[in-house]
Amino acid sequence: KQWYQRRVRGDEIDLSELNLVKPSCNVKIRLLPLGTVEQMQKKACYERFFDLIYLSSSQVHYFTPGLTTMLKDDANLLVENVKFVTPLTKEQEAAYLPKVKEMALAAKCELLGSNTETNNNFHFSFHRTENL
């Protein structure tokens, strides 16, 4: 019940409390309300803060160079595919991955693995090459 209350409030969750994952290090998931990414990018406390960021297909517009200010030097970014978004046409689905790749290039992220339109998520890697 204590975990559930924290989840509903939107606080961080310690995965070790869930008994689903036994991490060898401190792993926490931060569930963020919609629309908070832009404000977080402006706060110094989130600079180089995250090891991994997951963007749903409805939040992919936040995949910008500003987002990488919140990533640690060698971080990962996952972007959800749109294959389960029902109102999209085949042409819109086909245009999604090239658009996400374009966003990744602008944000200095590289696509990892054999990501295709059939994957559930696209995996990107970010390596900071200059000091921000």
Task: Summarize this entry quickly.
By secondary structure, the chain is of the alpha+beta class. 23% of the residues lie in helices and 24% in strands.
Explain what you see.
There is one protein chain. With 132 residues, the chain is of the alpha+beta class. The chain has three helices and six strands. It has a four-stranded mixed sheet, covered by helices on one side. The chain has a two-stranded antiparallel sheet with strand order 1-2. The longest helix is centred in the C-terminal third of the chain and has 17 residues. 12% of the residues are buried. The N terminus is likely disordered.
Radius of gyration: 16 Å
The count of helical stretches stands at 3
Bin the strand percentage.
15-25%
* Number of strand elements: 6
| Overall 3D form | globular
* Largest β-sheet summary: 4 strands, mixed
Please identify the structural class as seen in this structure.
alpha+beta
Helix content estimate: 10-25%
Give the oligomer, counting copies of the same chain as homo and different chains as hetero: single chain
Biggest sheet: strands side by side, in what order?
3-4-6-5
What number is the mean pLDDT? Answer: 76
CA distance, first residue to last residue: 42 Å
Features of the shown structure:
two-stranded antiparallel sheet, 23% helix, 6 strands, alpha+beta
Lay out the secondary structure.
Elements: H1 2-9, E1 12-14, E2 28-30, H2 37-41, E3 50-55, E4 71-80, H3 90-106, E5 109-111, E6 121-127
Parallel strand pairs: 3-4
Antiparallel strand pairs: 1-2, 4-6, 5-6
